[in-house]
Amino acid sequence: MKEIVSILFLSCFILQATAQDLHEDALTAASYAYAHAKKAHGANNVFHTQEYADKAIESFRKAEDLAAQCECMEANETAYQATTDLESALEQDTYERSRFYVKRAKELGSTLLEQLTKCRVDSQNAVAQNPVEAKEAAIAEASEEVEQKQQELEEKRRQLNLEQQRLEQQIAEQNKLKAEFEAKRAAELKQQTAIKAKAELALKKLETALQELSIVLNEDATFQAQKDYLRSQSDLENETLDDTKNFYVDRAKELTRTAMKQFAGNAEN
């Protein structure tokens, strides 16, 4: 009888030690996962964010597997969700969206450490009191908690999906407005280019006509030609259609005023 008791005691001790090692390994993996997730969240560009996120995924997966072996089902689900979020972070093409999923994974990493710590303490207490009954009670409690957490996670997933849909809709609307603006600007620039060509040709003809008229009225007179109405394409890109029109109107007025002053001088002579 004593031998049987000794064997049972030794078996319980071995089980307890094995469980303790599993919990320690799970906590170690979770610590690495949380550290990598924090680095990913603290990165200032999408490359480093995803680089650390990739490292965190490996540690979260290890923690997920060890949590299952420890029968820490809540921690197992948390590690799985963190892995899912990090995988989503790797699929994003912008820093903001990638960091959005990394932030959630980092928060889950902190929660995972708390869950594993609690699970280890509960396991130690259960083994110390009554290994068999504690195990059965823990399984029943864990199953109930897992079901509740699954429902909560499902609701969170639903809310996150709605949030992601709203985000995608906002991005789509912004892209649409950007495309409309670019199309409108391209059409306006086309009009500006046409006005530039016609206005400069007309001003050149006007200048030539005024030069000829000046010579007719006074052979010795020389009309002061102006070429400041000739512009480059880049000038148009930095102004509106109205700005372009006003520029050539002002040049025409200036050319006319110059001609009137010179003709007035010719008349006095």
Automatic annotation (TrEMBL):
Keywords: Coiled coil
Coiled coil: 132-216
Keyword Coiled coil recorded: yes
Listed name of the protein: DUF4398 domain-containing protein
Highest classification ranks of the organism: Bacteria, Pseudomonadati, Bacteroidota, Flavobacteriia, Flavobacteriales
